[in-house]
Amino acid sequence: MESRRDVFQAIADPTRRQIIDMLAAQPLNLNSIAEHFEVSRQAVSLHVKILEECGLIEISKQGRERYCEARLDQLGEVANWVTQHQRFWMQKFKSLDKYLQKTAKKK
User: Fold this and answer.
1) What are phi and psi of 56, to 5 degrees?
2) Domains annotated on the chain, with CATH
3) What pLDDT shows up at residue 4?
4) How many helices (H) and strands (E) does the chain have?
C-alpha cells in the first residue's frame, strides 16, 4: 500500500499553490495547466501527481485527456493547524503585552 503524501507538502511549493488556485476556479486538463508555467509539461505533471497523492485534486479521463479537479476538503487540516498555532501565539503575545505594561508602570 502506497502512503499518501502530507497535505502540507502540497502547499509548501508555490507552483502547486498556483495549480490549486487555478483548479479551484474550474477543472482543467494537463495541457491547460502546463500553459501557465515556464517549466516542462513533465514538471507540471509531477506537481499534479503530488497534489493527487495529497488528495487535493482528482484526475479523471475524458477521451484522451486527463482532467484535474480540485478537492479542497484536505485543506481543513491546514486550517485547523493554523488556528491552533494562532491561538497559542496570541496567548503568548497577550502575556508579553501584560508584562511590558506592568514593567512600564514600574518605571
Assistant:
1) -90, -15
2) 7-75 (1.10.10.10)
3) 64
4) 5, 3
